[in-house]
Design a protein that fits this description.
Blueprint lengths: L12 H17 L7 H8 L9 H5 L11 H15 L10 H33 L5 H5 L2 H19 L6 H13 L8 H10 L2 H6 L2 H9 L2 H21 L7 H7 L3 H15 L1
Length: 270
């Protein structure tokens, strides 16, 4: 990107394995910190019409852990449910509501896991990657990696700005031989991206937003940059027009507006 160099981390098998191992280690070492029952109940049921997100209820998600799976949800639920059970808090009126919200949050995270896995598998099919069991166990960061792989493939094959035909052909030839996209044909991938809505719709799903929040900061920044550049490449390809699905996709990542503002300021200074 213009602000930080492109890093093909999504194609670095050793790096991605280290990320998954680091996530597993953090879950093995990190214990869910449970406060006083009354404090936990107030945290989960803050009142005033506010509803705490499922990940926040169970203290899962975000870049600190780097993803989670069923075992992590089960552990967090077990630890918190022991403290929040209404039978153990007979004098706290909100205890039943807090316990109910805890159960709902666990179910929401489990359902979200299935949606994330489906999105990961569908993107892997498009890019020629294989969603391994290790990737599917805690699928959040792998989903960001494969979404990034998809976006960079689109950028390489479409080209950015004014690209001579010979340069575009050279990029497509490199794509076919780089090994990061399996045996996927360049034109096949471009057709799936531009002539169908499935892949763009996948980028607009809430499961990718949740996964994005679990990824390391530098990879989140690179994903945002690639997403913004893919929208710009489509506009350049189609006389400043993009598909309607882009509005929903970009709305999932409002940080892109800040990113573009920063780039505009950098250009002004240069």
């Amino acid at each position: 990107s213009e602000a930080c160099g492109d890093e093909p981390w999504f194609a670095d098998v050793a790096l991605r394995r280290r990320l998954m191992q680091a996530t597993a280690a953090k879950h093995a070492e990190q214990k869910i910190l449970v406060g006083a029952p009354a404090d936990e109940i107030r945290r989960i049921c803050p009142g005033g019409g506010r509803v705490l997100g499922a990940g926040a209820v169970l203290r899962l998600g975000g870049a600190h852990h780097g993803g989670y799976g069923e075992a992590d949800i089960k552990y967090a639920y077990r630890q918190l449910s022991r403290a929040l059970h209404p039978d153990k808090n007979p004098g706290v009126l909100e205890a039943p509501d807090a316990f109910k919200r805890l159960s709902e949050a666990a179910d929401e995270l489990k359902q979200g896991l299935q949606e994330t896995r489906r999105a990961l598998q569908r993107i892997c099919m498009a890019t020629g990657a294989v969603a391994s069991d290790e990737m599917l166990e805690r699928p959040q960061v792998p989903l960001v990696a494969e979404a990034s792989r998809l976006l960079y493939a689109v950028l390489v094959l479409t080209g950015e700005g004014s690209v001579p035909d010979i340069a575009r052909a050279r990029g497509q030839a490199t794509f076919q031989t780089c090994g990061a996209y399996g045996s996927n044909a360049a034109q096949h991938l471009l057709t799936k991206w531009y002539e169908a809505e499935e892949l763009l719709d996948l980028l607009a799903e809430g499961s990718l937003r949740i996964a994005y929040d679990c990824a390391p900061k530098r990879f989140r920044a690179q994903f945002l940059c690639a997403l913004s550049r893919a929208a710009a490449a489509e506009a350049a390809r189609n006389d400043s027009c993009v598909r309607g699905g882009w509005q929903t996709t970009l709305a999932q990542f409002p940080e892109i507006g800040l990113w573009r503002d920063m780039l505009d300021r950098l250009r002004c200074r240069v």
